């Protein structure tokens, strides 16, 4: 009986984790992120503050600060049919940005798991 209960809880947990990641979005580690931006065409968006962005960013990234009042307007100017790569410092703001982009109808969003913190830990290149 305990085993059946354990399996049921495990199954429900797996389903709920998969449900959190909506169709058309990917949450990937720095190595996969680096490979994708190198191979696949897309728009790279850094949602950190301008000060954070200037301290070092991923090459090719455009800074669209999540908490700027014109964030929605600037996001609307992006191609919703082209892949959008999004990141922040640690993952919280990029997750918010992903939700906003999903609501606005973006088809494919790739989020950097762990943000720039994880990118730097993985010793990936940073543009200064």
TrEMBL record:
<dbReference type="InterPro" id="IPR001763">
    <property type="entry name" value="Rhodanese-like_dom"/>
</dbReference>
<dbReference type="Pfam" id="PF00581">
    <property type="entry name" value="Rhodanese"/>
</dbReference>
<dbReference type="InterPro" id="IPR050229">
    <property type="entry name" value="GlpE_sulfurtransferase"/>
</dbReference>
<keyword id="KW-0732">Signal</keyword>
<protein>
    <submittedName>
        <fullName>Rhodanese-like domain-containing protein</fullName>
    </submittedName>
</protein>
<feature type="domain" description="Rhodanese">
    <location>
        <begin position="38"/>
        <end position="128"/>
    </location>
</feature>
<feature type="signal peptide">
    <location>
        <begin position="1"/>
        <end position="21"/>
    </location>
</feature>
<dbReference type="InterPro" id="IPR036873">
    <property type="entry name" value="Rhodanese-like_dom_sf"/>
</dbReference>
């Amino acid at each position: 009986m305990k085993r059946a209960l354990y399996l049921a809880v495990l199954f429900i947990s797996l389903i709920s984790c998969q449900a959190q990641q909506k169709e058309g979005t990917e949450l990937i580690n720095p190595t996969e992120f680096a490979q994708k931006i190198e191979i696949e065409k897309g728009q790279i968006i850094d949602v950190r503050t301008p000060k954070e962005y200037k301290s070092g960013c991923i090459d090719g990234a455009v800074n669209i600060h999540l908490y700027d009042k014109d964030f929605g307007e600037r996001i609307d100017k992006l191609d919703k049919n082209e892949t959008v790569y999004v990141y922040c410092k640690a993952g919280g703001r990029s997750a918010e940005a992903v939700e906003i982009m999903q609501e606005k109808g973006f088809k494919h969003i790739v989020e950097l798991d762990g943000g720039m913190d994880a990118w730097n830990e993985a010793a990936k290149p940073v543009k200064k």
